[in-house]
Design a protein that fits this description.
By secondary structure, the protein is α/β, with parallel strands linked by helices. The chain folds into 2 domains: 138 residues, Lyase, Ornithine Decarboxylase, Chain A, domain 1 (Beta Barrel), CATH 2.40.37; 230 residues, TIM Barrel (Alpha-Beta Barrel). 31% of the residues lie in helices and 22% in strands. It contains 11 helices and 16 strands. The strands form 2 sheets. Strands 1, 10, 11, 12, 13, 14, 15 and 16 form an 8-stranded mixed β-sheet that branches. Strands 4-3-2-9-8-7-6-5 form an 8-stranded parallel β-sheet. Strand 13 and strand 14 form a beta hairpin. The longest helix has 18 residues. The mean pLDDT is 93. The structure holds pyridoxal-5'-phosphate (PLP). The site of pyridoxal-5'-phosphate has 15 residues, from helix 10. The site of pyridoxal-5'-phosphate (PLP) has 15 residues, from helix 10.
Amino acid sequence: MEGTQPNLMENGSVKPLSKHDLIRFIRSVVISNQKQHETNPFYVLDLGAIRSLVHTWFHNLPLVQPFYAVKCNPNPVFLEEMAALGTGFDCASRAEIETVLSLGVSPDRIVFANTCKPVPHIKYAAEVGVNLTTFDSNCELEKIRKWHPKCALLIRVKVPETSGATFKFGSKFGALPGEIIPLLRASQEAKLKVIGVSFHIGSRAINFNAFEDAIEVAKTTFDAAAKLGLPKLRILNIGGGFTSGPKFTEAASAVKLALQKHFPDEPGLKLMAEPGRFFANSSFTLATSVIGKRVRDEVKEYWIDDGVSGSMNFLKYDHDEVICTPLIAGKNGRTKEMKTWNSTVFGPTCDSADIVLKGFELPELEVDDKLVFHNMGAYTSSRGNDFNGFKTSAIPTYIVNKN
Ligand code: PLP
């Protein structure tokens, strides 16, 4: 099996900033903003964290080329760093392709990984030479035959939903087992080149035996293509679903075991993946300001300047919780010793569901104190909206650990 090694770490720290240094940096931004009477929320992007994650990826999966899923967080500095480190990109639309190409990335480092693409986007991909895409329907094959017949194809297959993922993709994406052979035949008849298979076990997966099930389906598809007399398939795209931290080693081991079992001897097989969350999540930290306060009996209630319509929109879908660190004026890092209160934290909009935290223990806060949220890079700013004029897209990002 083959993989492409990146231009790893030519310069710059391969370590994330320590929590202590990150908080120190945030305090310095807060002080400078206060001088300019600004109290907007802001992100901090740690380039050292990205380098460290790319390093971890290739340490664990040296043969799997990552194509970062731009949808997860399209911050331009983040994308630039990924490009410099040699990753590819998974783009879902013309705009995402434009963004990546504008960084000087060559089109052969892009997979147009959207199984149903608007025709103008397909025409654009043809124009700029993005020549690899996914499909799972006859209709998509027909559009590609008409508008981009030179495009190489990965058949996206539905895989068993055994990963316990927060976001499951099976009801919308992927050819069912009974659809695979007819789709491969249709691609033959249309003289289109299917060169591989792709799947996604679901985002924020927790059970990585799902890779064994998914890679088995992929192998069945490789065998079916061979039986139909298609040129030998040569790409296996294992999608996303990875999270950073100890879970990643578990996921990588499951992938390697499944590959050994189902593709033990496959010279020339290229392995790729489309991780989003793995690279983006821990690279970004969000700092918010307390903008309002109300005390109701024993409960302290606060409003902050970002919330569920903005960066914390995942609270609507993930059934997840966030945790935060308070930064209190004049209490440099000594909040741990303070008495805490049962607290509720609201987002700034008039949406009654804009509630970030409930029953969370916090020391007593005042307007202009800060709440810092770590691990805020995945599907945060990219999925927030501008409801009530609170513009998620306008939240600035400060960069640390540049080299
Ligand atoms: N690839 C495709 C086609 C996706 O739809 C997604 C997420 O929606 C991803 C990759 C990234 O997944 P993750 O962030 O779980 O790695």
